[in-house]
Design goal:
homodimer; alpha/beta; Quinone Oxidoreductase, Chain A, domain 1; six-stranded parallel sheet; 13 helices; ADH_Zn_CS (chains A, B)
Chain lengths: 340, 340
């Protein structure tokens, strides 16, 4: 089969690999229908994380080809959406709602790779969810988004306690931030303030439910958000970048007793303990528990209540993956879908 | 009247000051019955915070002498317990349950001072709670504890989501940590693991509800707690020290998806963003919303369901305050009660 490999930072190739096989009775092998490139794929691409022949891709939808003897909830022929983290679904961490840190957790990125024609998915019951039937073609981008970027934005919005009467600030207008806007809107937030300087992302943000767009950054953004919230700050904030500046902006934008969901993978960030203390903001990050949200997200997509697939602004065949990485690196694309 | 002043780090005197008067219609003037010395008073005492003629004391119980025209819920003659932070009770932050960060918040410590014969308490309705009647003398230490140390431990336990079926780890065997144990027990925690190396504090911890005592510190403590919790870590953790080591011990002792309530005022602490992210622990600190808990805590004390006053192991008259500071600084006392 064909698969995307990151040989080294900045070097992405599409190459032949052996077809995956069932190894454990809890495995499934799926034929990938569509995959995509994640903002987090840019960390190794830019050399901020190691990249030595990484198997790329962790977002995926596809059709089950074969399952191990112990798999109960998906069967050959099912169209499935899977989480970007393998999870058993049965351990104490999974059952408490945090499958992204399952005791058997394994990142799909790196060792499995779904920017490929096929993939072996361990713990298929705990990782995959079948759609109600074969999806119409126009639903595929949205179902694919549920695999990580939507699920991650959703987690951030849930953690920020988005809901009726609440003002939610969103730091980061990348794909995850935009999905955070959509999630906050779906969860009933009254006001959604998006930080963005890009006209196209501002437009998409408004389409997803942003009520206010601010162009300030850092302390100026904090001051603007306070101005918009009686001097108090947002009830909840979504951080979707992962830098020191964005994290501090997010913390300072949130009122005392408010909630901050941070889903930008942190790079070189140190949070001053005294500021975290006196902020009295409740903070939680981590690999999103996408599997927890998948049944609900799939249903919302199936019912055409949400259209997160709008976040993809470039579609390429798998063979042209390198072009997709370049486009995201150079910010000519927000998010790239790869057809397989 | 007589009052305790910290002239400079390490120098505590009892001196004459003018009697406080009603200034605002929302004020009350109270005659202090008992006050105490807080672990946090040791930061300026030891020079880790500024101390230039500070009015000391922020925990207090007493009898209302006079109230301003706008005060509705307490009246002269009432016995009252007050929070260590002044709060209006009416702003959005107060009504959301975080009076420690009220928009009118003012620390009693520093500018008011309750290690004194009398004190003017602004926003009396939002800060003070009257007891059901005049208390028996033996209840005074426990009512006094509710003013901060119990309320702070309670907040940490609530934030750690102590409850039935939960394992709660407590880092810090000072007065706040011990109150955290008591709170976790009252909230129904199944297992309470206290880190302590002092026999007397271990004994008090057990009396308050600790089921396990561990003597390890740092990474060894983390390993021990994982050993006691199927390798997962505690469901919730209370941090009651405020150092880098204690904060990291607390974070690492908590399972993914668990909750960390940190109430040790942070000094020179920096939390690595990536570790906070991957921990997936929900973290919240801040000045405890004691006023939120006071009605419930007073009732539990009144009904003799809890005896947090046990945490005082030295009682001195106000005039001997300096001796009390020395005893706490040298750890010959856990917590000192000052009778007025």
């Amino acid at each position: 089969m064909r698969a995307v490999i990151m040989d080294a930072p900045g070097t992405v190739t599409v190459t032949d690999r052996e077809d995956p096989q069932i190894v454990e009775p809890t495995d499934a092998v799926i034929r990938i229908t569509a995959a995509c490139i994640c903002g987090s794929d840019l960390w190794p691409y830019r050399g901020a994380e190691e990249a030595d022949h990484l198997l790329m891709g962790h977002e995926y939808v596809g059709v089950v080809e074969e399952v191990g003897a112990a798999v109960k909830t998906v069967k050959p022929g099912d169209f499935v959406v899977g989480s970007f983290v393998i999870s058993c679904g049965e351990c104490e961490i999974c059952t408490a709602g945090f499958p992204g840190r399952c005791v058997h957790a394994e990142f799909v990125h790196g060792g499995i790779g779904t920017q490929a024609e096929k993939a072996r998915i361990p713990y298929a019951d705990g990782t995959l969810v079948a759609t109600p039937g074969q999806p119409d073609a126009d639903l595929i981008p949205s179902l694919l988004a549920a695999s990580d970027v939507l699920g991650t934005g959703w987690y951030a919005a849930v953690t920020a306690e988005a809901g009726p009467g609440k003002t939610i600030a969103v730091v980061g207008d990348g794909a995850v931030g935009l999905m955070g806007v959509l999630a906050a809107q779906q969860l009933g937030a009254e006001r959604i303030i998006l930080s963005s300087r890009h006209a196209d992302r501002q437009a998409l943000g408004r389409e997803f439910g942003a009520t206010d767009i601010i162009e300030e950054r850092g302390d100026a953004a904090v001051a603007r958000i306070k101005e918009l919230t009686n001097g108090l700050g947002a009830h909840g904030t979504i951080e979707a970048v992962g830098t020191q500046e964005s994290m501090m902006q997010a913390l300072r934008s949130t009122r005392p007793g408010g909630n901050l969901g941070f889903v930008g993978v942190q790079h070189d960030v140190a949070i001053p303990g005294d500021e975290l203390f006196f902020s009295q903001v409740r903070v939680q990050g981590g690999p999103a528990p996408v599997r927890r949200f998948l049944p609900d997200l799939i249903q919302r997509i199936w019912d055409r209540k949400i259209n997160p697939g709008r976040v993809f602004d470039l579609t390429l065949p798998l063979e042209q993956a390198a072009e997709g990485y370049r486009a995201m690196d150079q910010r000519t694309a927000t998010k790239v879908l790869l057809t397989v």
